[in-house]
Amino acid sequence: MNMVDAVPLPWVLAVAAGLFCIGLFGALSRRNTVGILLGVELMLNAVNLNLIAFWRYLEPNVVAGQVFALFIITVAAAEAAVGLAMIIAIYRTRLTVNADEVDSLKG
Amino acid sequence: MNILIMVIFVVLAAFTLAAGVMVVTVKNIIHAALWLIASFFSVAAMYLLMEAEFIAIVQVLVYVGAISILVLFAIMLTRHVTGEGVRQLYKRWWIALIVAAALFGVLIVPTVFNYEWAVQPSGAQISIASTVEIGTAFMREYLLPFEVASVLLLVALIGAIVIAFEERSTRRRVLTLAEEVEQRRQRNESLRLAPTTHASETSE
Amino acid sequence: MLQFLENIFGPSWIVSLIAFLISTTVILIVTPVTFMMMTWFERRIVARMQDRLGPNRVGPAGLLQAVADGVKMFTKENITPRAADKWVHLIAPLVATGPVIFLFAVIPWGYGLSPVDINVSVLFVIAVSSISAVGLMMGGWGSNNKFALLGAMRAVAQMVSYEIPAVIALLSMVLFTGTMNLNKYTELQGGLPILGNTLKDVIPDLGLGWFVFTPIGLVGFMIFFICILSEGERTPFDIPEADSEIVAGYMTEYSGMKFAVFYMGQFLFNYALSMVASIIFLGGWNFPGIPQLISIAPPIGALASAVVLGAKAWFLFFVMIWLRGAFPRLRMDQLMAFAWKFLLPLALINILSAALWLTIMLWCTGDCTQNPWVFTVGGINPLGWLGNSPVLRQLVGFVLTAIINAGAFFWLLNVNRRPAGETPADLARDQAFGTASLP
């Protein structure tokens, strides 16, 4: 009568892996920095899904899995705030948010 | 009942992955952010399916209520970046595709399906860690990480304000429509010129 | 409902499904009817305050006006601007209104009348109510209209800023009660004002131990109610749809049913948050006589409790209308300054008060040597004189937190006062001589 009996663990992990790889593709191939950030958020979500799946299937009576997921959510929030602030600052000076056009440091 | 849960899971998984694909492929960046919200939601539903209700609600609270709003706000503050008519992917995006697909198909999936997971036997009476236990854990075993996380949030808060702050004196004048059109035309021209100069630089 | 059906038919997933379908149907019928009543109520009351009559033609006292409006909305042409983003424009009202109806699923409507009983319902309310901001943003951006975008940006900035004091006010109550389950809040608020349930052996349960009578609850209620006004875009804070400035804000390009759905979401949001405020701060369905009625005849008691809770929520909604009749609109910078410089520090100090109250209540109760809450200074327990009397502890806690909260309130008022030379009198004098430097 619960998820553990109904769905095998590898399926959940495979979904998380798929989400991670989609996010990785987005982060690597998007030119827009906001798009890169969205890809990173997808990857963090996939990791969280993995952690919760491990917690539920392997050690449901230990809180560590949920606590780790909460820490990752915290870090994701901090990362999004700083990342978007940087994007806004870059846009102000360069009038673009495309990662390949912000190349002042390129030799 | 098991079949019902299975069907719900498969539907949620398909929706999550489809929304993820839309996030990385759609042209308009605002549409991408909206698809990202959809993906967050179905991940939260999967947490509910796995009986992690606290995490599911925190997911909605932080990702949908805060991060997505922040992303949408940032996109709207940086005008003209919704990306209509601009190339969204790098020219060599297929390399990223190969890397991601190889990671998924060659590395992760075989590992995940071939490893013998020590899953709890079904039917056994197990106690699931409750919200109260999470709270207690934060105040006892994980007190130091908890404090570090709060300091991290504070630092991120101050850092974001410092980075995005704009002195009133340095703020740009609001442009008229004519000036804006002119500026956009100039930028497009410089963009059109840019690849050739880059090519000449790299060929040296 | 689930309990009731399981008692008759035994547990099975079909029974669960049917129980939840019935609950859903009831919610989906009751909420639009509530919305229609609310529009009628608001129009009549505001008309009364402005010395008009208001809608009084359709049905008795104009009660069917809302039905007539509904028919009008249905038959209106549904316009989508050509430059708009069709799908975003279409989905936005649903995203703004759906979460609001979700809220009613976890709110207990009366004794034993909660559709879903989850452990973290306070957190659920906070999380789900923040989703509708996404809908507003979609509506504003998808209309491809400057006014709509401005309205949406204003609305979301306002919602996000006021969410923080609201969450912290609720957090102080969660700390105070030790639970995030909305069903438990009502049980904790029986008994007498201030003393709560501590004297229940001596005096019968009067159902008046509302948290709003404690200093922590009073400050929390004030903050939370102001934040509700702001999140529901009620009058002192109706900047997002200030019709004299930006047409109708994010709703500018909406017509017909899409507009009605947005409108419904807003009104129901006000009602849902009024209900939450009544449950957490105004004692839920506690009222003299209700606890006895519930213990004598549960079905009648449940009905009476639903009526009492509804009356409290409608009273809060009436206060919202009253404010609309009485106050002008704030300016954007005043709005932000109020949230960040006044409400937020006050809410944080309120958390400290709640922690102090908790310490006084739990300090060395029962067997002092076994209690994790004991802590001595030089071998002497500084709070040992409190003994095991909850009444004494409640009173000491009341006095201490009242002093702290009142001090914080007046201190913040003093910190936030206008600088010298900028009082209204000074500004008026400057203006009289033509040297005004108004922003």
Note down, in words, how this protein is organized.
- The complex is a heterotrimer of chains A (107), B (204) and C (439).
- With 107 residues, chain A is mainly α.
- Chain A has 4 helices and no strands.
- The mean pLDDT of chain A is 84.
- Chain B contains 7 helices and no strands.
- Helix content of chain B is 74%, strand content 0%.
- The C terminus of chain B is likely disordered.
- The N and C termini of chain B lie far apart (68 Å).
- Chain B is an all-alpha fold.
- In chain B, 28% of the residues are buried.
- Chain B folds into 3 domains: 82 residues, NADH-ubiquinone/plastoquinone oxidoreductase chain 6, subunit NuoJ (Four Helix Bundle (Hemerythrin (Met), subunit A), Up-down Bundle), CATH 1.20.120; 37 residues; 34 residues.
- Chain C is mostly helical and 439 residues long.
- Chain C is built from 16 helices and no strands.
- The longest helix of chain C is centred in the N-terminal third of the chain and has 37 residues.
- Chain C is globular, with a radius of gyration of 25 Å.
- The chains are: A mainly alpha (107), B mainly alpha (204), C mainly alpha (439).
- Chains in contact: A-B, B-C.
- At the A-B interface, α1, α2, α3 and α4 of A face α1, α2, α3, α4 and α5 of B.
